[in-house]
Design a protein that fits this description.
Strand order of the largest sheet: 11-14-15-10-4-16
Structural class: alpha+beta
Helix content: 10-25%
CATH class of the domain at 272-350: Mainly Beta
Largest sheet: 6 strands, mixed
């Protein structure tokens, strides 16, 4: 398995590793200590996540802003240097092909990507490249980001880096670590991504842990995101899904001019017609449920297929298993119950937290 520059250290510590569901060729720890303690840190303290296998594609050239603006689903040209947004490249049919953060830099744009997607996005953009003065450079090998999140994340970060200037998400904030520039991305008031590169990631990890940040593995990451109803690209989102179905409103703009798939997105907003939507469902047990498991309801004496599971995770908050599933319209109200697969287990829609 490929992936994190921290992988050798994780193995040396004897941590149990597993493939990332969104990137099967990339391994990451399931947990570092006791998952309940990690979960508590994520809810009330500062959780440290190894995202150092994420990737970065740089788009440069005098036509870069115009080129990306006419392709991507969210605004590009209105971004000021140092700011960014959640963004997407859709298919011509308006479905999600890639998800990423788009950041404007002095010399172009940095597209911050999930692991294993930079090369494919570069190829997809190249198909639209004709005579524009624009280049695509995969800089994934030079980045190794960590994510720090939770109510105490900012204070933990400032104990390592010093006071941070106030910033609205999504933005790069000037920072340095161990005498070298640090790429610090503010993703939200309690969520930060910081990158000291492969050569500095071990020292940065250790410094954050020394301030009280708690390393958290895949178990807690997925528990938290499923509780929040947060879709994961490559697992809950792919080219079969419209952005509205996956609750990805931050990744596209309805007040923007033409882009790939824009007509379909606009029609959905104007006329509705979504056949499914991503929902959080609580199970009667904590046993794992396979991706692709179907949801059924008996109506008028007929057992109808009404949903499809995309992710399972154990929820510490609910003390049971949760799933994310695409549920057909008219069956999406909280409290609605379904039979899970061949039964007899049932699943009930619950609000995201």
């Amino acid at each position: 398995m490929d992936g994190s520059p921290l992988l050798a250290r994780h193995r040396a510590l004897g941590l149990r590793l597993a493939a990332r569901p969104e990137a099967p060729d990339h391994a990451t720890p399931l947990f570092f200590a006791a998952p309940p303690a990690e979960y508590a840190a994520a809810r009330a303290g500062a959780a440290l996540l190894d995202d150092s296998d994420r990737e970065r594609l740089l788009v440069r050239g005098k036509d870069a802003a115009d080129f990306l603006h006419r392709l991507l689903a969210n605004h590009v040209k209105r971004l000021a240097v140092g700011t960014g947004n959640h963004n997407a490249l859709l298919t011509p049919k308006g479905k999600v092909q890639f998800l990423f953060e788009c950041l404007r830099q002095e010399d172009g744009f940095a597209l911050e990507l999930p692991p294993g997607t930079a090369r494919a996005l570069s190829a997809a953009l190249e198909r639209f490249h004709f005579s524009e003065a624009v280049t695509f450079e995969d800089h994934s090998a030079s980045c190794a980001p960590l994510t720090l999140e939770g109510p105490a994340a900012r204070s933990a970060l400032e104990r390592v880096l010093g006071p941070l200037a106030p910033s609205a998400p999504i933005a790069r904030v000037p920072a340095s670590f161990a005498g070298r520039p640090l790429a610090l991305l503010v993703l939200g008031p309690e969520r930060f991504r910081l990158d000291a590169g492969p050569e500095g990631v071990v020292a940065l990890w250790d410094a954050l842990v020394a301030t009280g940040a708690t390393p958290c593995g895949l178990v807690v990451r997925d528990s938290r995101r499923v509780e929040a109803g947060e879709a994961l690209f490559g697992v809950d989102v792919d080219e079969q899904v419209y952005p509205q179905e996956a609750e990805l409103a931050q990744a596209f703009a309805l007040d923007k001019g033409c882009y790939v798939g824009q007509e379909v997105v606009a029609k959905i907003d104007t006329y509705g017609g979504l056949n499914k939507r991503l929902c959080v469902l609580a199970l009667e047990h904590e046993e794992p449920v396979a991706r692709g498991t179907k949801l059924f309801r008996v109506e008028d004496g007929e057992r109808r297929e009404l949903g499809l599971v995309t992710t399972w995770a154990y929820s510490f908050a609910h003390d049971r298993g949760l799933v994310l599933a695409y549920v057909k319209r008219r069956h999406q109200e909280p409290g609605t119950e379904f039979e899970l697969g061949d039964g007899p287990t049932r699943a009930r829609i619950v609000p995201a937290r």
